[in-house]
Amino acid sequence: MKDLDNLNRQQLHWEQAFAKNNEMFGESPSDAAIRAAEIFKSHGQERILELGAGQGRDT
User: Is the pTM higher than 0.85?
Assistant: First the structure.
């Protein structure tokens, strides 16, 4: 039960943090995502599965 309480507090923390500053991580793709897209394209990859997108700026 303690773990669940900790998870719930984390969720509340991040919901409040994003509500105060929803641009804290930026709105444009990260440099790493841009480079990864270039590499995928150079290898002919047109479809990828992206897991753990966070706020989604890199998807």
Answer: no
